[in-house]
Amino acid sequence: MKPVIALVGRPNVGKSTLFNRLTKSRDAIVADFAGLTRDRHYGQGKQGKHEYIVIDTGGFEPDASSGIFKEMAKQTQQAVAEADVVVFVVDARAGVSAQDHDIAKYLRRLGKPCLLIANKAEGMLEGAQLTEFYELGLGQVHPVSAAHGQGMRGLVELALEPLNLPEPEEDSLEDGELGPIKLAVAGRPNAGKSTLINTWLGEERLVAFDMPGTTRDAISVPFERNGQKFELIDTAGLRRKGKVFEAIEKFSVVKTLQAIESANVVLLLIDATQGVTEQDSHIAGFILESGRAVVLAVNKWDAVDDYQRELLQRSIESRLSFLKFASLHFISARKRQGLGPLWGSIAQAHKAATCKMSTPVLTRLLLEAVQFQAPKRAGMFRPKMRYAHQGGMNPPVIVVHGNSLEHVTDAYKRFLEGRFRKEFNLVGTPLRIEMKTSHNPFTDKDK
Asked: Quick one: which residues bind GTP 2 (predicted)?
């Protein structure tokens, strides 16, 4: 088992910057903005032969009694409970605050191994400036600078030292072993993305609060179901460009788009109480452009009446007609309704996106389609299709070779797409058909 290190501290002390340093990534959003991180954010790190897991947490207020701060405190408390070592981060330049004392009191009461880190200590001596932190009662104060990378190696060594870790054994992955399926849950703010993931996990893993924009980062959570490993990615809700005012929300949009592009399957969540909006169409369009496999789910289905349901179904047919290949489900994340069949469609979409199509079968289907309906003549030329082969996966790409294929119309490409989809049962994934015209060696010869 990999040791777990939890980063804890009040807002804006540099926990997310430290997280990025320890994981050698840019997974956590960083900005000079207090209260940015809200969920538990997990990452993998390695120093020497030892691998470890780091948990980034939101600003901790142990005695928060209501609102979003109470939910953030619950997330931090859960991270501390999961951790083998707690790294308590304080601001070396701001000095000790009352909130630091509250957090230190909470950590002393737990009795877990704890490391006190004074961040933002670049250019500071280890003398008088740091002595005030000893009053927190957590032992030695270790100055670091996460922004400049100072003291990082020593920090990890100090954190892992009390665990007495044995020398790690070499891992041997079996041939053909596949990694987890990356499943990104995307949609507009307040559609219920975090609630859905919490319901799947059976715990309050993500902050789910009745306030649009609660999730700001793309949070990744490992999950296993029926022997299949998943990586669930909760994304920030995407609003219309004209309504994104905060600079930090622009960072969230970028992280969401990156999460969609890196996912294997995207679950597009639509709020039944709001209907299908123009923004839902934009998100669906980006998923399609990215070539991701997609499953549609309408959440809060229990909160609308029959008339609204009928309007919503018609709206999906008209506004999301370009996603006809995707499975559609009506669910209630809060009441756990309709979630079982959702997994079947996710597995089917992933299988379709990674489907292997043999060249003989593709060529046979192509020639049968041409025999059934030949492509339209363009002037003196009629496109002549000779054979087809697979040019890629996730999304599947079929390359058709022949002569004068630049004249093949979009309508005929859709006709071919329908044939290929039916044969290989390509449900839930975009399919791209590329036409490649053979070069005529006689065109370049002098007459």
From this structure: 187-194, 234-238, 299-302
